Hints:
Keywords: Signal. This protein is mostly helical. It has one domain (about 5-130). It has six helices and two strands, in the order ββαααααα. It has a two-stranded antiparallel ribbon. Helix 1 (about 15-25) crosses helix 2 (about 25-40). The longest helix is centred in the C-terminal third of the chain and has 22 residues, at about 95-115. It binds zinc ion (ZN). Zinc ion binds near residues 13, 19, 24 and 26.
Amino acid sequence: MLKIFNHWHGCRVVGTLVHSLWTCPEVTALWDGVRDTLSKVLNINVPLDPATCLLGIEPQGINCKSAQNIVTLACLATKSLILMNWKVSKANCFDMYNWLDEFLNLRSMEETASLLVYRDGDGNGLRAIIR
Ligand SMILES: [Zn+2]
């Protein structure tokens, strides 16, 4: 059963989590900005849909694995930014500068995690090291 939320940021819609993450007018401009930025940076048409953005399903029409990973990470950064700010009313919290900060923070965490996983020179992963 879907949970109903009182929405924030003045849209005054009582909606679901899908409204908060995808259809709310407060966040559609953010998703549009993410799509436009990714399309420019990757030099391809990046189609963003709820399956890709909300569920993390591999984006359709992007054949390059590194581009797919960037799109997936960008969607994760967008969801994180929305969820971290959904109950507060900060001006410009959904602008592309805040999104870029969130994206770079997630990218940095991903790089750090990969260093830990591949630290063992004998080919053992982190699970073997901490046993
Ligand atoms: Zn709303």
